[in-house]
Amino acid sequence: MNIAVLGAGRIGSTVGRLWHAAGHQVTFAARDLAEPRALAAELGERAHAATVPDSVAVADVVLVAVPGSAVSDVLKNAGSLAGRVVIDAANQMGGHRLTLRQLADAYPGAGWVRAFNTLQARVLAEENHRQPPWVVFLSGTETAKRTATKLIRDAGFEPVDLGGVEDSQLQEPGSVLWNNPLTPNDAHDLVARVRSGDAVTVDPLAEAFDKLRKHAPDDPALLFEHLSRAVFQAGMGWRVVAAKWPGIREAFHRFDPARVASMSPGEIERVEGDTRVIRNRAKIEATVENARRLRALLDEYGGIRPYFGSFPDATAASADLRRRFAFLGESGVHWLLLHAADEAAAGR
User: Fold this and answer.
1) How confident is the model at residue 347 (pLDDT cuts 50, 70, 90)?
2) How far apart are CA 338 and CA 130, in angstroms?
3) Domain 2-196 = CATH 3.40.50.720
4) Do 261 and 292 touch, CB atoms closer than 8 A?
């Protein structure tokens, strides 16, 4: 098949690699073509890079693997989706979720499937083709699901069909099916429990918020490092950021907020010329400014735990983080909370 992968981040690059390894023609597309071109060059024959509309124009299947907040804009610029199978892998969190029903109604000429959104990129990359296989849940229109079923198996996973477009709610963030690697037998048992009402749902952001209220360390470097990573990853391929991260960590004093906040203009200029880092002036300056804002937050609340403890819920905390810190949007806040909470709970 000819497959367009919209988004060259963790999910898009990982699933695209698996499909390429299975023999498909894969075209990677993103707002910034640097990462798609790097992927195409690495994979070689049958791998391509193109703009979003150009990739969609030649595709039989389109994988939407961009941050949830970017889905609408990406699809508006994608050109005609008519006659194509569109697999929605974007996890939408927060107050403005775009459902599969809304997407199917907005683009009725396409066949819509929800899939590849319930497993972490690490699991997709490292645990494909295991025995017994992990499950990838899917839901959507019947014809489109037949195509998606084959592609799930090609990627090294076992499909479990949850039903039609409306049933996609069962695999959304907060469901017990989400972020939960399952074997086929366990998956079918859990789906039966969910349908009977004998399984609770969880809000991943609420869980992360609760972890930070209880376990955030006294050292603010943990939060500041994850905050800074969210800033650098905005609009940029995660592999590029991951490759540069050791150099970025050293350039920013291992994310000691006090040292970063006191960086002089001359030191900032040296960082901007440092080949070890991503030399984006706006993001470098935002990191220094965010260190100063984090210091002000610590002075105001006395610590990270008291700060999170001052909010009634994750929604209020997320809104305040976006307001306080530079270059931090909705998807960045979600990344920050989820990753900082996991590391805090593990006892960094």
Assistant:
1) low
2) 27
3) yes
4) yes
Structure-token pair, residue 316: 């209020």
For the stretch 175-229, pLDDT in tens is 888 888 899 998 998 899 888 887 666 667 787 888 899 888 888 999 999 999 9
Per-residue tokens: 174: 């907060």
Which residues is 48 bridged to in the sheet? 27
Q: What are phi and psi of 55, to 5 degrees?
A: -70, -40
State the fold for domain 205-346: Endonuclease III; domain 1 (1.10.340)
In what side-by-side order are the strands of the sheet with 25-29?
A: 47-49, 25-29, 2-6, 61-64, 85-88, 111-115, 135-140, 158-163
Query: Cα 125 to chain center, whole Å?
Result: 14
Task: Please write the tens of the pLDDT for every residue from 313-342.
Answer: 988 999 999 999 999 988 788 889 888 887
- Enclosing H/E stretch for 104: helix 100-106
CA distance 229 to 347: 19
